[in-house]
Amino acid sequence: MTAPAISVIMAAYNGAALIGETIDSLKAQHFSDFEVIIVDDCSTDTTRDILRAIDDPRFRIIESPINQGPVRTRNCAVAAARGRYIAALDQDDLCHPDRLGAQRAYLDANPDTVLVATATRELADGVIRHSTLPALTRPALVEWMLQICNPLVWSSVMLRRDAAQQLTPFTRPELLYAEDFDLYHRLAPMGRIARLDDELVIYRSHGGGASQRFTTTMNDSAKRVLTACHERLFGAEAGMRADLLSRHVMHREPVPNRDQLAALGDTLLRLQTDFLGRVAVDDEDVRLIRWETARLWGRIGRAGLRSGSIDLADTVAVRPDHLGLGYARVEELFLSRLIGGVRSVRRRYA
After folding, report:
1. Closest of 281, 272, 285, 343 to residue 310, by C-alpha
2. By residue range, what is the domain housing residue 285?
3. Tens-digit pLDDT profile for residues 238-274
């Protein structure tokens, strides 16, 4: 049997309410040389009935005899993949008809790239919104952002199978809910990591999602990944710096005080200086990296102002070189501070 160009991998568990739409979005792909490997992790609803009813020979269904969790279930799907490329997809997300073809074309044309994702939109409460991630990217920007956050949506990822086979295991269960972030770091030494800026995946955000239910575990796992990544630069301080990035950059917790804001700004600036000093970049790369980092810094400042944990004097006093106030308009900062003042008063009188 001839191997397909692409293997789409999916872990399924109690997904009966939405998995049918996900399957339909794969059947609608314009590029047709793919297989879909779905591993059901002992669902207790009607998911297995839906999967058994698929009448498309490109779909291969594996029924796990035991419940083993999402990471091991996904690894099982990867082990069964035959395609040159592996495309990720969660059971509740949706693909644009051009998704697989566009990513396959990019990887064919860029042999130095080990992984390519796509831009995404978010579906929440029946409304589709644009992502808050950068609208325009280059590989250098994606690789820089991996130093401080996760700029990729798992369901939009496609990577080379020969690279995946070098990793044992493919994704690590001990880093649950940040296993994809860890994977990108483990793949980075093998080649470039890029993103198509076309919105080719719709990511569902709902109360049942892991990002809503397991925040503490996600924070801890992301911190472990970033600590290992930054030990070379920060030594014994790597864990503290990683905790700042995990909480306030990745998971958007408002900074609690001026000292934490200053430490976070110093962390971002030192990481960016180090990155630009060791990675080959051109002027456009530098412009994008600095712009997006400043945009992120502005978001951090506004979140702190809105929470009432810092004031305008704090944001001015600790601003790092070239990040300024994050290119935020003055009126935005004043509005954020006004909201934070009201919240502070409410907390005081509660």
Report:
1. 343
2. 254-349
3. 999 999 999 999 999 999 999 999 999 999 999 999 9
Q: Note the Cα 28 to chain centre separation in Å.
A: 25
Residues 114 and 27 both lie in one domain: yes
Report if residue 238 sits inside a domain: no
| Higher pLDDT among residues 105 and 311, named by residue | 105
Indicate if 157 and 30 belong to the same structural domain.
yes
How far apart are the C-alpha atoms of 345 and 322, rounded to whole Å? 33
Number of domains, the chain:
2
Task: Please report whether residue 240 resides in a domain.
Answer: no
Q: How many CB atoms lie within 10 A of CB 63?
A: 14
Q: Does 135 fall in a domain?
A: yes
Phi, psi of 258, deg, nearest 5: -65, -40
Q: How far apart are CA 140 and CA 284, in angstroms?
A: 10
At what angle are helices 330-349 and 283-307 packed, to 10 degrees? 30
pLDDT range class, residue 213, cuts 50, 70, 90? low
Q: Cα–Cα distance between 230 and 54 in angstroms, integer?
A: 46
Q: What is the mean pLDDT of residues 319-329?
A: 59
Burial of 77-106, coded b for 16+ CB within 10 Å and e otherwise, reads: bbeebbbbbbbbbbbbbbbbebbbbbbbeb
53 C-beta neighbours (distance < 10 Å), count: 10
Supply the Cα-derived Rg of the chain in whole angstroms: 21
> Residues 11-67: pLDDT tens digits?
999 999 999 999 999 999 999 999 999 999 999 999 999 999 999 999 999 999 999
Residue 189 lies in a domain: yes
Is residue 132 located within the same domain as residue 272?
no
